[in-house]
Hints:
Blueprint: H1 7-12, H2 17-24, H3 31-36, H4 38-56, H5 59-68, H6 76-93, H7 96-115, H8 123-136, E1 145-147, H9 148-154, E2 170-171, E3 174-176, H10 182-197, H11 204-209, H12 211-229, H13 239-249, H14 256-268, H15 273-280, H16 288-301, H17 311-316, H18 333-344
Antiparallel strand pairs: 1-3, 2-3
Bound molecules: iron/sulfur cluster (SF4).
Amino acid sequence: MPVGFDEKDLARFPFLTEAQAKIAGSQLNHLDTFLASGIGRRIIQKATDRVEAALTIPPQGLLDHFRLSEGDISNPLESLYTYGMARIIVSCLNDRTAFERLINYEARRSSFFLMNDDSNETAPVEAARREAVAAQLGLSLSGNTVTVPAYIEMVAGLQEPLWRLVNREVYGGLVRVYPTEMEVLLRERIRVVIRARGMPRVPPEVCEHLAVSVGHLSAVLQGQMLRDLGPIDESRYPPCMNALLAALLTGRNLTHMGRFALTAFLHTIGLSTTRIVELYQRSPDFDIEKTLYQVEHISGRSGTEYTPPSCATMETNGLCAGRDGLCERINSPLGYYRKMRGKAAPEQEPGEDGV
Ligand code: SF4
């Protein structure tokens, strides 16, 4: 039986093709007039709130947030446009962490609605609609298998051993999944679909119009990042960063990549530009102007804030030194630093780095 989606469905599942078409044909395509209108201003505020929720609410708090924000759907079209505007604002924010957090938020929101249907429809209608949503994601709620490539793509962000392919029943190119696992797989699949679409290209003049929201969210993001990382604690540094610091402090020159990795790491965990430049003073070829320029460049003065390289890149550049047991469970020096904090006071769901 073919299933039609109503506006409320589109608001709940804005990744659907029909929802994307609705946004594409909406006033969001005439941003200059839309942003200045009353409804435009209201949607900018709602979108700013939505992105702020994505940046600040930890995964374990999102279910309550979605339950409480269910009222938003009383105006489905506004909710759908708010989704589109949130993507525009994050595009102006131009920050990978913000992008990933919005994706995470939207994936959890839609999977929440998919698994917690509150409509008054009869069970078969409700089941058919949920099945149609899952079908657009290439999944079947009633099925118990997923193809190997789709499975690998979906579980790429899940770190618990349970999801590793070697721990699954695989036969004939299919992976067996259980109904209780479907919510997680749907969420991950929605994440893949939203990420694949990327962020919209936004003209600079539109970003200028959104400068107040973008500035506010930028400050929220910076504060949140420092809170996530906690107070600077050298005992949590990964072996590679300790090795780079030791080399620096004993007066040895670092390679260009070594300088970049160390600077990006120290900046991301919250060290000020001044403190980072002070560390480089021990370098034999120390040049304050050059060092200041490089540190400020990596820290975002040029408009792009760099994050430390992944472990794979560190290894390729010969910078992965002194691996220890924790290194087996992370993908980046920053992940190591976070996990070291998690050892003392776990705050995130297992398998999530929160980024
Ligand atoms: S595995 Fe990663 S965190 Fe560990 S030492 Fe190598 S680069 Fe650093």
